[in-house]
Amino acid sequence: MFTGLVSDVGTILSIMEKGELRRIRIACSYTPESILLGASIACSGPCLTAVEIGSENGKTYFEVDAAAETLARTTVGGWQVGQHINLERSLKIGDELGGHIVTGHVDGIAKIVERRDFDGMSHFDIEAPAALARFIAEKGSICLDGTSLTVNSVSGRVLSVLLIPHTLAVTTWGERKTGDFMNIEVDLMARYAARLTEVA
User: Fold this and answer.
1) Are 67 and 21 within 8 A, CB to CB?
2) Tens digit of pLDDT for each residue in 65-93?
3) 109 closest CA partner among 125, 127, 122
């Protein structure tokens, strides 16, 4: 489980094809000893498993394997060497839940349709997949590229979010532009509420 509060911005160092798997090496600011082999790390949304940990040129890295399902259903399939990604370590019992409950199970890929900057902040309009629109509500929570955000408004499939200067500075959002794709995970409670309505 995660909270959607990004704790580091990683950089993709290498991508290696291994049959249907893709091995991805990611540089981070975590210390090597703080990452356990098999640890779950949210990488711009998807929960991926650390399968190798080390250091190179004084910089910590960890490697993850992305399977065909992850490559097909998330933005991981389009990642490039040098790209920055949001990172979050898994939640520990007793940690502060500052965002909302996030599983790291990405529901689909959304698209930025407009970015407007003002007063150091940025307003984004984002188009969600049609099948997910019913799970998104004004003032509800949404996880976009591993970041817990509040939905400002919803119109059909398009939701809007506002990013404050701090969030723009400590995540990859500052680099985001119109036309970019991002991973989306809807609020877990909204999903279960919708399911209860269906079977009632």
Assistant:
1) yes
2) 999 999 999 999 999 999 999 999 987 76
3) 127
Q: What is the token pair recorded at 90?
A: 């898994």
Q: Express each pLDDT in 10-22 by its tens digit.
A: 999 999 998 889 9
Find the helix or strand (DSSP H, E) in which 122 lies: strand 121-127
- DSSP letter for 102, please: B
Residue with tokens 């981070």: 28
Show the DSSP H helices in 117-187 as ranges.
165-170
Q: Tell me which residue of 32, 31, 33, 46 sits closest to 86, measured CA to CA.
A: 46
Scan for tokens 């949304």, then name that residue.
45
The pTM of this model reads 0.92
Q: What is the 3-state secondary structure (H, E, C) of the chain?
A: CECCCCCEEEEEEEEEEECCEEEEEEEECCCHHHCCCCCEEEECCCEEEEEEEEEECCEEEEEEEECHHHHHHCHHHHCCCCCEEEEEECCCCCCCCCCCCECCCCCEEEEEEEEEEECCEEEEEEECCHHHHHHCCCCCEEEECCEEEECCEEECCEEEEEECHHHHHHCHHHHCCCCCEEEEEECHHHHHHHHHHHHC
Domains belonging to the chain, first-starting first, are 8-89 (2.40.30.20), 108-199 (2.40.30.20)
